[in-house]
Amino acid sequence: MPMRALIQPGAFEPEVITVMSEALEAALRKLQDTGQTVVPEVIASRIIAAAKLGERDPVRLREAALRKRD
């Protein structure tokens, strides 16, 4: 699932979208490896939310996406 499809045009620089896409792919791989079922759009929305707060590290973006919500 391409991250760009979920982001408003111009919301992020191309480099940031690349990092976000890497984080999305890594998060989905990790979930798949552990046998967890997840809606990719939910994971992507968590990455987008963290990026809107200024996070740019792909590992921290991935972890933010995988963190359980209460």
How would you describe the overall organization of this protein?
This protein is mainly alpha-helical and 70 residues long. The chain has one domain. 60% of the residues lie in helices and 0% in strands. The chain contains three helices and no strands. Helix 1 packs across helix 2, helix 1 packs across helix 3 and helix 2 crosses helix 3. The longest helix is centred in the middle third of the chain and has 20 residues. The chain is globular, with a radius of gyration of 11 Å. The termini are far apart. The model has no long low-confidence stretch (mean pLDDT 88).
Summarize the structure in short.
Helices cover 60% and strands 0% of the residues.
Instruction: Flag low-confidence runs.
Output: none
Q: Report the strand count.
A: 0
Name the helix and strand elements from N-terminus to C-terminus, one letter apiece: HHH
Question: How many structural domains in the coordinates?
Answer: 1
Query: Gyration radius, to the nearest Å?
Result: 11 Å
Span between termini: 26 Å
Question: Could you report the average pLDDT, rounded to the nearest whole number?
Answer: 88
Write the layout of secondary structure elements.
Layout: H1 14-33, H2 40-52, H3 58-66
Helix pairs in contact: 1-2, 1-3, 2-3
